[in-house]
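Record type: monomer structure entry
Structure origin: computed from sequence
Chain ID: A
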Amino acid sequence: RLLADTISTLPLDVYRGGEKIATPPILVEPAAGQPRHDFVYSVMVSLLLRGNAFGIITARSGATLLPSQIELVDPDKVQIARVDGVTTYRIAGVPFDAEDVWHVRAYPVPGQVAGLSPVEYARQSIGLGIAAEKYGAQFFGSGSIPSGVLQADVNLSPEAAESIGTRWRSLHEGRHKVAVLSKGISFVPISVKPEESQFIETQRFGVSQIARIFGVPAEMIGGDSGGSLTYSNTEARALDYLRYSVAPWLVRLEASLSK
């Protein structure tokens, strides 16, 4: 969302031969009824989640028949084939020639027509975060760790221990009541600190790792920056975000739209 919002709301100018010219129709309303910011946002979502953005060229204009409208399609419905150097696309089962398809790749791989998404580059890291989240939910939600122990200063038979435990649960489980204990029995609470189970640290690592995968500052998506931010280095951070996080995506879009 951070990257898609940032890039889709930037102003756009068109230059030819170093001089600014009027914005062509494809950059005013790229698709029927879809303003440019929605179009760019959708393209960025496709690139960030699937590594590819696809559109069908539905209208052309001018003597050179340059595309004037592009209807974006769901990247999950696109299959790509390359035979004898010729690339063809199938969109929802319908074949299209490469010249009728607008295709932007996130991370191109040598020898492959389709690009890779940031997620595909880091499956194992994301899998670790998901596993840690599931483990934490089970660890803290299953009740496998007792909240406390009833201690007696004498040995109890199994039947007596079971009776006391049952009686305790029936009186106090899910209720906030004052506990009254018989002589010789005491309640010792057990506290399992999340830090000791390393659950919170693992979750923080998950946010930082995702920030690294998408190339954005962790603190901009709710993570820990690792230090205090002052006005001066906040401004520097914004410049770094534009230079290192946003600029590569802008280059991809500019090159594809210019072509």
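Annotation 1: The CA atoms of residues 96 and 200 lie 49 Å apart.
Annotation 2: Residues 231-258 form the longest helix (28 residues).
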